[in-house]
Design goal:
By secondary structure, this protein is α/β, with parallel strands linked by helices. Helix content is 34%, strand content 21%. It is globular, with a radius of gyration of 22 Å.
């Protein structure tokens, strides 16, 4: 982790976390994650005490859904026999928890509290031309030369991961980053509106920082991002962002893939992380502070895992934040 002091043009300064990484270009944090999953799967193979568990058909649950053929195939590959899942709705809108009930592993019943997990690798897009220009960035800003080089580096790193789907924001800078990853991994990007950057008032898109009227709109709009109920022109506000973050997490949770790569944007990714960490305790003041101090580098890698534990419900957990070791010289 690297913590730096950052000062604005007005002279105000704050501490900012700029990196959470093991520091090795080889991505040792991801290797550790893979090792953890391997160990977990090995331990699951030891849970065979049939006397302590009921058969699949006898498991309780008032709201039950049946996994798709794809989910069944994935479970068979891991040695599971297909079964039903009880769905328990979570604490915030759009969320729910899935428990495996009465599965068997290699013919022996498993504990009913063994839970299905997934991993999502979030990638911020590469540097765009508007990232370094003195303008309010527009959705159609392309990658800069530096951004294209960053995209190539993160693509090489992502190519070493095992994942089933590549999602991306439809904004141009994210599309171009996802295209580089897709070309190297063979995955076709799926563009999802939920993962766009915070939506600015259209009146300021592309305007220079020297435009007085645009700056006034910007200041009012940034206040609306941490003030419930406040709205400026057609820009997103605090309530919109939290609703969209919840919807994005629910979408990822509900997808059949167990491993997903998402190319998105800095502010919206921080919004997702803040929501995961603070949940319903997130307030406008805490939201503003989090965005101020939690920086994300272009092509920085953030990992969320959806998992549970002993007497713990499934939930999203922050695993890695802003790992950009691949940019080390």
């Amino acid at each position: 982790m690297v913590v730096t002091t950052v000062c604005s043009a007005t002279g105000s300064c704050c501490w900012r976390t700029t990196m959470v990484s093991c520091g090795a270009p080889s991505g040792c944090a991801l290797n550790a994650l893979a090792a953890f999953r391997e160990k977990r799967n090995a331990l699951m193979g030891e849970r065979r005490d049939a006397l302590k568990h009921m058969a699949c058909a006898s498991q309780p649950g008032t709201e039950v859904s049946t996994p798709s053929d794809g989910a069944n195939a994935a479970e068979r590959d891991l040695g599971f026999s297909p079964c039903k899942r009880t769905v328990v709705h979570g604490a915030y809108p759009g969320s729910h928890t899935q428990f495996m009930t009465g599965h068997t592993l290699n013919g022996a019943p498993m504990m009913a509290d063994v839970q299905r997990d997934k991993v999502v690798y979030f990638v911020r897009h590469g540097q765009s031309e508007d990232n370094v220009a003195p303008v309010f960035q527009s959705p159609d800003s392309p990658l800069s030369a530096v951004g294209r080089a960053q995209a190539a580096r993160i693509a090489e790193r992502v190519a070493k991961l095992s994942f089933q789907a590549l999602l991306a924001s439809p904004y141009r800078r994210a599309q171009e980053t996802a295209a580089v990853i897709g070309n190297l991994t063979g995955k076709v990007p799926e563009f999802v509106e939920l993962f766009t950057e915070r939506v600015k008032p259209t009146s300021i898109n592309g305007k220079p920082f020297t435009d007085v009227a645009a700056v006034q709109v910007w200041r009012a709009w940034t206040q609306s991002l941490s003030t419930p109920g406040m709205r400026v022109e057609d820009g997103e506000n605090y309530d919109d962002l939290l609703t969209r973050a919840d919807a994005a997490l629910a979408l990822l949770q509900d997808r059949a893939e167990s491993s997903i790569v998402v190319v998105t944007h800095g502010y919206f990714l921080r919004t997702i992380v803040a929501r995961v960490i603070l949940g319903n305790a997130l307030s406008g003041e805490a939201f503003q502070h989090f965005h101020r101090v939690a920086a994300i580098e272009n092509t920085g890698l953030t990992v969320l895992r959806y998992q549970g534990g002993f007497e713990e419900s499934l939930c999203w957990r922050l695993w890695i934040y802003n790992d950009h070791a691949h940019l080390a010289d």
